[in-house]
Amino acid sequence: MFQDLLNRLLSPAKVTLADEDARLALCALLVRVARSDHNYSEEEKDRIDRINQSRYGLDMGGAILLREEAEAMEAEAPDTVRFTRAIKDAVRYEDRTAVIEALWMVALADGHRDDSEDTLLRLSSSLLGVNDRDSALARQRAEAAL
């Protein structure tokens, strides 16, 4: 179902994603962070849904549908390195820093920082091309919002 989008993301040529495809790819990355500690909690799902609502102006039903589609895509997506690098090529820098902030909000949704989530966040930030300063500021904004 998502193979066409994954093939475009992973093709050697740079691609420009349609808004709907970019939403799905970025939400799949949120799901990947939430699943990284092997405890995909209801709090994390709720946080992803609320991020989707505010970021994309969706109602709750639309946000849940986007998350469910992203869950399926994340399960089919290859390793984080190739997947995240592909997103980097398709998404503007400002949007990528906002993604890092959203990733932190998901990682912190269950009330504690997990080493596996921290590791994936550092890797994702680097692969998305977000510099250390902007990544730290994004984490601080996420912590303040909680």
What is the alpha-carbon Rg in Å? 14 Å
* The CATH topology: TerB-like
CATH architecture annotation name: Orthogonal Bundle
CATH secondary-structure class: Mainly Alpha
What series of H and E elements makes up the topology? HHHHHHHH
Helix-residue proportion = over 70%
Q: Specify the number of helices.
A: 8
Q: How many domains?
A: 1
**Uncertain residue segments:** none
What is the number of E strands?
A: 0
Into which percentage range does the β-strand content fall?
under 5%
Mean pLDDT: 85
Q: How many angstroms does the end-to-end distance come to?
A: 35 Å
Q: What is the H level of CATH, i.e. the homologous superfamily?
A: TerB-like
Shape type: globular
Structural class: mainly alpha
Q: Sheet with the most strands?
A: none
Pfam family, one: TerB
Protein name: TerB family tellurite resistance protein
Organism: Phaeobacter gallaeciensis
InterPro entries: DjlA_N, TerB-like
